[in-house]
């Protein structure tokens, strides 16, 4: 092992950041020291900068696209800093009152932070070297326990190589004498059985596709990040911890926001499996082509399974739920285990069970908004639409409408003309419609920013919405919770303390 | 051509008259002291000196006595003649000598000079513990063939009924759970494995041995790149079975503590000499000992 320390030597820092389980606390603390050194300028600590960066890291970790992008392009450019920011963010999460009695394995946001750490590290490693660090990591991931002749005397991974003879792609080269079954990688099959062997043999070596390295490293990283976090926790004094949790607010507030808007799946790992299953089934049923399946109607397990099979959600947790449903029978078993769920009814129909899944009667129903029309699925907006047939709108109704549209993801990057055009086509259905007036009103609202920020949409508690509200306890939706507003909207919400009072 | 079991007298004659002529052809690593053990299997169990210990039909004898640290102190056999004497008269020349676990004095036995049905040496070799042997058994091939012919699946295991229905028990050698066709296929597989060893595993020192009911394929290279431990051998097993589709016995391949039939020893159940071979065209009939042909 090299005698260089992670404080001074970048390569060692990368090794410790990537393989903390192979190192003691001294080396890991030296990695943190390297990270903290970045926040010392001319001998002076810069706590505000550190706080700012860790809040930025922690809140970014909750965004799926940031986590994914970090695998291609690093979000933090230095291993010591990365280790510090990720572990401090995790400590802030653990300090949130909501998680006081929760085991960390149940907390989804900790998984998100770890994923950002691992993805970020992966892209740093790629940028850093010539593959030699990957080789070092492979050495650990593919090593077998010493056999009767002692440990394998040479390197376990002798290279990361392009192998055109195997159809191209990168492979880890492992001598057969160093190999174990761990190196035999099979393709996944739909039935869950081992598929075709992807590991190849040549010149007394195994060639393992690098994709397997990524999978194995993710497994390793789970334990690795836990160790980094433990060392960091032990490293912090009571005063430091108090300073951290007193001053940090962005991560805590983001978690509060998830709670407020009913995004339980974003904060809890495996949050209420029954609830997750039903939510995914609802989405799959809604998404089913030609309305073969409908919410509120009885369907066979086969019909529901076909809806699940056809459903291709983006969120990881939804995909996980879908992947667990492998056949109509497994779906039936899953639903049978949730027979007490308030939205599920199971009825015997001949020799088979039929299942009815209803709209949620509680909590927050997410809405897919592909066009402005979809906003009318919100009962309050439907009520508003109905009233607009009879009466001219009060100004606030139109503005409310325009502000919701401004925040919809598909209009975020649109030019004003498109938005105005689309809104006008919606308004034109009402008898009072006057093209010039509406055009003016919409443009006025769009120019009327608040301190340069787009005005927030109303939420359910807004007084002006109350005249259309069917009652929050009865409504399956919430404006802020159901509409696909981007995180920036909630970010702005954090800054504006008022909740709709600006009207 | 039919096969039969060799008589005790024939076995004795083979090791006395014919086996010594093959001594110079034994692989060079098979010496009096090279393997860690020699082992003998008998047709009937024989008593040992100690009371209350079950009779033995299989004995392993170390080639060296060792101290507590495992270092070699005294050789049990000084030269190969001693090994030969042990094979011919195991009770009289038992290296355990006066130990309680030595075969009981031949004078006390109903059948003095028990001759071995089979002679083995340990793959766990003093100088080269990485000797690799792949075992391909005609029985496995026959069973698979029968299953495919009858049911197209292996649900019936190795039952007599399955082999009988497929006509394998009747085919020559009659009464054995395989036919000559299966042995020939085993030999072909053996040379396929040798080719795999040479082409994909960079092996230079290989050997195919006709074992009497199949083949043993050896990889004997001694460089560190070929020192496959048990875990690497599991990989080899999987590759040979799944990727190359060779019906090997995976247990034998992975286990370095196994004993293997000594080349040029007699497989007494089929009257065949265990013979290193050079070609898949090998005619198994040529492995019948001369002493049995006369």
Outline of this structure?
The complex is a heterodimer of chains A (503) and B (294). Chain A is an alpha+beta fold and 503 residues long.
DSSP strand count of chain B: 12
User: Most extensive interface: pair and counts?
Assistant: A-B, 23 and 23 residues
Number of helices of chain A: 22
The helix tally of chain B amounts to 8
The strands making up the biggest β-sheet of chain B line up spatially as 2-1-5-9
Percent strand of chain A? 5-15%
Q: Tell the overall outline of chain A.
A: globular
In terms of topology, how is this protein built?
The complex is a heterodimer of chains A (503) and B (294).
Chain A: H1 10-18, H2 25-37, E1 40-41, E2 44-45, H3 47-61, H4 64-70, H5 79-94, H6 108-128, H7 132-141, E3 159-162, E4 170-175, E5 200-202, E6 205-209, H8 210-235, H9 238-247, H10 250-260, H11 264-267, H12 273-287, E7 298-300, H13 301-310, H14 316-324, H15 328-336, E8 344-349, E9 352-357, H16 379-390, H17 395-407, H18 409-412, H19 416-427, H20 435-447, H21 479-482, H22 487-495
Antiparallel strand pairs in A: 1-2, 3-4, 4-6, 5-6, 7-9, 8-9
Helix pairs in contact in A: 1-6, 2-5, 2-8, 3-5, 4-6, 5-6, 5-8, 12-13, 13-15, 17-20, 19-20
Chain B: H1 8-18, E1 37-46, E2 56-62, E3 64-66, E4 72-75, H2 80-88, E5 118-122, E6 132-137, H3 138-150, H4 160-165, H5 180-200, E7 206-210, E8 214-219, H6 230-243, H7 250-254, E9 259-261, E10 266-267, E11 272-273, E12 275-277, H8 290-293
Antiparallel strand pairs in B: 1-2, 1-5, 3-4, 5-9, 6-8, 7-8, 7-12, 10-11
Helix pairs in contact in B: 3-5
């Amino acid at each position: 092992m090299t005698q260089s320390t992670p404080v001074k030597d970048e390569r060692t820092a990368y090794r410790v950041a990537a393989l903390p389980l192979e190192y003691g606390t001294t080396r890991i603390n030296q990695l943190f020291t390297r990270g903290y050194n970045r926040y010392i300028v001319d001998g002076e600590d810069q706590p505000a900068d550190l706080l700012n960066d860790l809040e930025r890291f922690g809140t970014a970790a909750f965004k799926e696209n940031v986590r994914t992008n970090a695998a291609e392009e690093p979000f933090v450019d230095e291993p010591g800093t990365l280790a510090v920011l990720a572990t401090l963010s995790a400590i802030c999460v653990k300090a949130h009152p909501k998680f006081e009695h929760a085991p960390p394995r149940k907390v989804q946001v900790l998984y998100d932070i770890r994923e950002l750490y691992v993805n970020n590290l992966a892209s740093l490693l790629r940028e850093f070297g010539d593959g030699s660090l990957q080789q070092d990591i492979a050495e650990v991931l593919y090593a077998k326990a010493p056999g009767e002749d002692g440990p394998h005397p040479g390197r376990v991974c002798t290279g990361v190589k392009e192998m055109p003879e195997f159809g191209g792609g990168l492979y880890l080269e492992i001598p057969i004498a160093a190999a174990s079954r761990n190196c035999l990688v099979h393709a996944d099959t739909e039935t869950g059985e081992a598929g075709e062997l992807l590991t190849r043999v040549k010149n007394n070596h195994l060639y393992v596709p690098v994709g397997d390295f990524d999978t194995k490293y993710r497994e390793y990283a789970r334990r690795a990040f836990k160790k980094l976090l433990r060392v960091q926790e032990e490293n912090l004094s009571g005063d430091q911890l108090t300073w951290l949790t007193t001053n940090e607010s962005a991560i805590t507030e983001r978690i509060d926001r998830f709670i407020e808007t009913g995004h339980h799946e974003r904060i809890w790992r495996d949050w209420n499996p029954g609830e997750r299953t039903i939510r995914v089934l609802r989405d799959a049923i809604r998404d089913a082509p030609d309305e073969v399946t409908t919410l509120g109607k009885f369907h066979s397990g086969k019909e529901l399974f076909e809806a699940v099979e056809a459903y291709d959600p983006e969120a990881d947790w939804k995909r996980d739920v879908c992947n667990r449903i492998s056949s109509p029978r497994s779906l039936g078993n899953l639903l049978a285990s949730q027979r007490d769920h308030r939205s599920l009814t199971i009825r015997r129909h001949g020799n088979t069970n039929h299942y009815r899944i209803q709209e949620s009667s509680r909590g927050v129903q997410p809405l897919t908004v592909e066009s402005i029309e979809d906003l009318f699925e919100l009962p309050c907006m439907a009520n508003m639409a109905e009233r607009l047939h009879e009466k001219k709108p009060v100004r606030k109704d139109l503005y409310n409408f325009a502000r919701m549209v401004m925040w919809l993801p598909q209009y975020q990057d649109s030019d004003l003309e498109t938005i105005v055009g689309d809104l006008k086509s919606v308004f034109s259905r009402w008898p009072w419609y006057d093209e010039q007036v509406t055009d003016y009103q919409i443009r006025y609202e769009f120019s009327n920013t608040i301190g340069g920020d787009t005005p927030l949409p109303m939420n359910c508690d807004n007084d002006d919405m109350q005249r259309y509200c069917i009652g929050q306890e009865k409504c399956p939706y919430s404006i802020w919770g159901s509409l696909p507003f981007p995180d920036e909207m909630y970010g702005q919400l954090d800054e504006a303390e008022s909740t709709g009072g600006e009207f | 051509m039919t096969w039969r079991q060799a008589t005790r007298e024939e076995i004795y004659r083979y090791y006395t008259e014919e086996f010594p002529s093959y001594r110079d052809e034994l692989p060079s690593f098979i010496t009096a002291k090279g393997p860690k053990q020699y082992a003998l299997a008998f047709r009937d169990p024989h008593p040992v000196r100690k009371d209350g210990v079950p009779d033995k039909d299989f004995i392993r004898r170390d080639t060296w006595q060792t101290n507590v640290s495992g270092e070699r102190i005294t050789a049990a056999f000084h030269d190969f003649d001693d090994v030969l004497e042990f094979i011919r008269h195991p009770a009289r020349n038992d290296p355990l000598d006066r130990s309680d676990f030595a075969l009981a004095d031949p004078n006390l036995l109903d059948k003095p000079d028990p001759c071995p049905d089979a002679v083995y040496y340990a793959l766990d070799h003093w100088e080269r513990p990485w000797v690799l042997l792949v075992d391909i058994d005609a029985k496995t091939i026959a069973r698979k063939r029968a299953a495919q012919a009858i049911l197209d699946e292996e649900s019936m295991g190795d039952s007599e009924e399955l082999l009988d229905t497929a006509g394998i028990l009747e085919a020559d050698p009659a009464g054995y759970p395989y036919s000559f066709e299966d042995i020939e296929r085993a030999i072909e597989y053996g040379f396929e494995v040798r080719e795999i060893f040479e082409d994909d595993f960079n092996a230079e020192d290989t050997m195919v041995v006709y074992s009497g009911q199949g083949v043993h394929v050896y990889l004997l290279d001694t460089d560190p790149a070929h020192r496959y431990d048990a875990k690497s051998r599991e990989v080899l097993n999987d590759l040979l079975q799944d990727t190359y589709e060779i019906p090997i016995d995976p247990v034998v391949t992975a286990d370095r503590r196994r004993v293997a039939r000594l080349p040029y020893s007699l497989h007494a159940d089929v009257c065949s000499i265990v013979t290193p071979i050079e070609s898949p065209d090998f005619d198994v009939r040529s492995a019948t000992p001369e002493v049995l042909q006369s």
